[in-house]
Amino acid sequence: MTGEKQPKKTIITKKNPMPAQDPQRRSKNFEEVALGYPEDTVIAEAKRCLDCKNAPCRQGCPVDVDIPAFIRLAAEGDFGGAIQKIKETNAMPAICGRVCPQESQCEKFCTLGKKHEPVAIGRIERYCADWELARGTFPQRVAPPTGRKVAVVGSGPAGLTCAADLAKAGHRVTVFEALHVAGGVLMYGIPEFRLPKRVVHAEVENLKKLGVGIEVNAVVGKFATVDELLNGGGFDAVFIGTGAGLPYFMKIPGENACGVYSANEFLTRTNLMKAYRFPGSDTPIRVGRKVAVLGGGNVAMDSARTALRLGTEESWIVYRRSVHELPARREEVEHAVEEGVKFAFLTSPTRIIHDDNYWVTGMECLRYELGEPDASGRRSPVPIPGTEFVMDVDTVVVAIGQGPNPLVPRTTSGLEVNRKGNIVADPATGATSKPGVYAGGDIVTGAATVILAMGAGRAAAKAMHSYLTQKGPVQ
Amino acid sequence: MYRIVNKEVLAPDISLIEIKAPLVAGKAKAGQFVILRLWEGGERIPLTIADFDRERGTITCVFQEVGKTTRQLGTLEAGDKLKDFAGPLGLPSRIQNFGSVVCIGGGVGVAPVYPIARALKDAGNEVTGIVGARNRELLFWEDRMRAACNRLLVATDDGSYGLHGFVTDLLREVIGEKKELDLCIAIGPLPMMRAVSSLTREYGLKTVVSLNSIMVDGTGMCGCCRVTVGGETKFTCVDGPEFDGHLVDFEEMARRSVIYKPMEQLALELYLGETGHRCSCVRGGEK
Ligand SMILES: Cc1cc2nc3c(=O)[nH]c(=O)nc-3n(C[C@H](O)[C@H](O)[C@H](O)COP(=O)(O)OP(=O)(O)OC[C@H]3O[C@@H](n4cnc5c(N)ncnc54)[C@H](O)[C@@H]3O)c2cc1C
Ligand SMILES: Cc1cc2nc3c(=O)[nH]c(=O)nc-3n(C[C@H](O)[C@H](O)[C@H](O)COP(=O)(O)OP(=O)(O)OC[C@H]3O[C@@H](n4cnc5c(N)ncnc54)[C@H](O)[C@@H]3O)c2cc1C
Ligand code: SF4
Ligand code: SF4
Ligand code: FES
């Protein structure tokens, strides 16, 4: 369908490899794993792009970055031009370039990828964004003040994007964040070695430059409800981007033993509270000799790799399907393997065993096989009776998913939620059942991706802007 | 930054701080708590709201110096600042006219039980207060409690003041003299809440305890604070901190509360070594 009409160009079949810290060394430190392309490599990689007329790559990008255009500029060495092109639709490319699951998004549809390796779109995007960050971001245009006030609840990628867009449109925006720093999962969940926190800080600082007020330590539903923000609080509209922060557990015996963590706790202690610096920081973490991480997504990979860095001898991913079904980004799985993370596929725990002091001493598991495809099209795991065995572990990290935190939905009148507790919102506008209240990101979709959350924040900002404009001038 | 407007040493290693935090004070209710942090690398620690003043916009907490963070907090004075302060967290106490209630505070637990006793009395209950401490020196807020209760009974472990014994001894007497008790609220060290709960279970007296499990975020995000109550897992920070004392798995709770003991000891030793003793190196909340 594509390809045919392209001007003749020598095809370079392979992606330029990403320079990375040596696996032996990096599995002991928290510094960034992927080091970023040098300038000559990024230009060489950008030159691989065929500049396809119909740009199939774009349909894979949830925010429709004009991929061929920015890559063309990068190929010419015009990184300033490239970053401006990217930022037309993507507010935080330094983050997306690092954490987007490109293999299932933009790069999945790349023409080159049909027969060869796709263009490393994410890596080029990251280069351009880092180039800008190193020079101090370009000042952005802000519309004259409208006099309207907007509250954004939650400072994850959804909230930050929504706040940035509304501020640029001239509204006065205040972000309320429950924790003591802004950034959501980008700060407390995704580890430093994948997404350095200075990158997130830089984005938050940018937001402040746009005039956005950021109130940390502000738990909405506690110090004020959404209704109170709207009535009496002086806000004309509210965006809810509170994420999927509620950790799920397996509900198996022994799960409250000492040494069992939710991935959220394990990662929050490490990333947000900097437990890896203990006693240089005050929050402790305890990782034993052998760690089992339950689950197969990004959160599980992050936990298993974090455990190694905290000094455990063996770090296992315990997953009930096979290697082919692992939902984590491929690059993260590869990195985990290189660093020495071990995998127990087709395995799931039935109970956690502990000693008299409640410390974990082992985990009883069952072997599984793959049966018929289920509703999602994936072959469902079926336990094989009589295959119980005990894994010798002393720490267990449960990374089987997160649900919506009920605090805001429960304290907001007239806000419709679905069976799972997610806020019901129009995917195109973020509008909820409550007038003036919009929502987006994981609180609406369930745990998804950074770029989808940003996309939702942006769509909501657009709809909120017209809602506020329709309200007419402020009296 | 959140300014300390008042500080009082109530007893050896027990201090009161009053913090300016109008948004928290505007909503605070008896039974809720706050989470605070002292410096950039600091731990988030929960403290119960011992009092609040909506007009002044302040929250009062009473804390015992047990480890590094609380010792460090103990070095701060009026005018110093806390880096972070979030709240009011957790569910408020259920306040209604139950009839006749006993409010028990053990050790530093006297502080959090005080606003609950006061609110219960205001709601029309007949409130019997019981407070206990290791010795007379460690007892504080006897005056406040006396004002908040219809009557107050006191015990000390060493007999230096009030009854020579435990709060449970006083509770047994109260139960003995009055058959029609409707509710018991007990806040204090884990062993005390456990002992009270097992005593009241014998008499079928409904008992509420306030659990102080280890926490990180305090908003239901990490699951660190989970406890087993009636066979179900609950998160203390959002489902509590108050639970039915007859249903709490105290054994599990006790084990979970010492998970980091060796590390906490190390942190305290390093801190005391580094500072000689109480110095003011973190004054103002920054290092
Ligand atoms: C460990 C981990 C690794 C991941 N890896 C990737 C990856 O590689 N690539 C990718 O694309 N996605 C990844 N994800 C998913 C991605 O991070 C999320 O989809 C995304 O962050 C969702 O953004 P959000 O803005 O909806 O919410 P969040 O990022 O969850 O932010 C919500 C914020 O709201 C705050 N909040 C909650 N309740 C309140 C309240 N009542 N008042 C005030 N504030 C409140 C929270 O404290 C939080 O800061 C990962 C997730 C995790 C946990
Ligand atoms: C809801 C709640 C309300 C509380 N209210 C009060 C109060 O009003 N007054 C008071 O003196 N204390 C209160 N505590 C206990 C107080 O939080 C701890 O004493 C404090 O965290 C100890 O920190 P540290 O660094 O000084 O001591 P550490 O040496 O770190 O720990 C000493 C002990 O405190 C407990 N603890 C440690 N870290 C935490 C943590 N992050 N969260 C909770 N407990 C921890 C552990 O059981 C530990 O064994 C409350 C705890 C909770 C959960
Ligand atoms: S935002 Fe993500 S999906 Fe879109 S082009 Fe960039 S890396 Fe690809
Ligand atoms: S990135 Fe791939 S699909 Fe997109 S224009 Fe370049 S070669 Fe074509
Ligand atoms: S402290 Fe994290 S869930 Fe309660």
UniProtKB/TrEMBL annotation, chain A:
> Looking at the keywords, is Nucleus present?
no
Q: Which residues form the Dihydroprymidine dehydrogenase domain?
A: 26-135
**InterPro entries in alphabetical order:** DPD_II, FAD/NAD-bd_sf, FAD/NAD-binding_dom, Helical_ferredxn, SudA-like
Its keywords, alphabetically, are: Oxidoreductase
GO MF annotation terms: glutamate synthase (NADPH) activity; iron-sulfur cluster binding
Q: Which residues form a coiled coil?
A: none
* FAD/NAD(P)-binding domain segment(s): 149-457
Query: Which EC numbers does the record give?
Result: 1.4.1.13
Region annotated Disordered sits at 1-27
PANTHER family for the chain: GLUTAMATE SYNTHASE [NADPH] SMALL CHAIN, GLUTAMATE SYNTHASE [NADPH] SMALL CHAIN-RELATED
Protein name, UniProt field? Glutamate synthase (NADPH), homotetrameric
Record lineage: unclassified sequences, metagenomes, ecological metagenomes
Q: Which gene encodes it?
A: gltA
